[in-house]
Amino acid sequence: MILGLKIFLDTANVAAIKTYADMGILDGVTTNPTLMAKENKGFLDLASEILQIVSGPVNLEVVSQNTEGMLREAHDLASLAPNVVVKVPMTAEGLVAVRRLHKEGIKTNVTLIFSPNQALLAAKAGANYASPFIGRLDDAGHDGMKIVEETLQIYKNYGLETHVLVASIRHPIHVVTAAKLGAQVATMPPEVLDKMLKHPLTELGLKRFMDDWTKAGLKLPERRTLEAKTRGLAGN
Ligand code: E4P
């Protein structure tokens, strides 16, 4: 059963992952070769650090372009931890790999999806997740979210169990729309999650509370004073 929109962080930055994991709002992580390359660490060290922090799905991507290479890499990646999800590109070779991995019980996420037809094929091959890249579609002048809407409709029509993982998210409105459409997962860069967390009126409100409190010279009671007062009240 899915409880609300799952929030994944689209990063390989360990500090960012830790920050949001500590808040209890992080359901998983997606990485890709570009994100792994940004961190200037060896792949294995980085993947292991992430896996130590995140108990939910951690998406690690294969880099081979042929099925045999993808399968070999997928087996290696899946051997790292039971919560590894293997990201496989949306290619003919990728779908063969997904089908084989599905039969072996290895979880997959088909990445680089740009049309509902690609999403349909990923689901038919047995992918656990299908990742439409919303921001990149928007950048190219298309309506990225339309792909999410159509994919969700198609999966519903045929009872396909693949989860729609909305990827390439650029701003908080993408997350709101994904949630309104009923997508199962949204993966976003730390900057987007940070924007979701903050609101200028929260900051303003907090500042006003603190200013008024300080101006009045109020203080919260110390534990000893509080205990004495409680005893006094109980005695009455
Ligand atoms: C998803 O799994 C991808 O890593 C990601 O969302 C790509 O986003 P980008 O278009 O911001 O690179």
Structural commentary:
The protein has 236 residues and is of the alpha/beta class. It is 55% helix and 15% strand. It contains twelve helices and eight strands. It has helices spanning 14-22, 33-38, 43-53, 67-78, 92-104, 116-125, 134-139, 144-158, 172-181, 190-197, 200-216, 223-235; strands spanning 6-10, 28-30, 58-61, 84-89, 108-113, 129-132, 163-166, 185-188. The protein has an eight-stranded parallel barrel with strand order 1-2-3-4-5-6-7-8, surrounded by seven helices. α6 (116-125) packs across α8 (144-158) and α8 (144-158) runs parallel beside α9 (172-181). The longest helix is centred in the last third of the chain and has 17 residues, at 200-216. The radius of gyration is 23 Å and the shape is elongated. The protein starts with 5 loop residues before the first strand and ends with a helix. The structure holds erythose-4-phosphate (E4P).
Strand content: 15-25%
What is the molecular shape?
elongated
DSSP helix fraction: 55-70%
Low-pLDDT segments, ≥5 res: none
Secondary-structure-based class equals alpha/beta
| Number of strand elements | 8
Hetero ligands: erythose-4-phosphate
Radius of gyration: 23 Å
Number of helices: 12
The string of secondary-structure elements, in order, is EHEHHEHEHEHEHHEHEHHH
Q: What topology, given as strand order, has the largest sheet? A: 1-2-3-4-5-6-7-8
Termini separation: 52 Å
* Main sheet attributes: strand count, strand direction, barrel closure: 8 strands, parallel, barrel
Mean pLDDT: 96
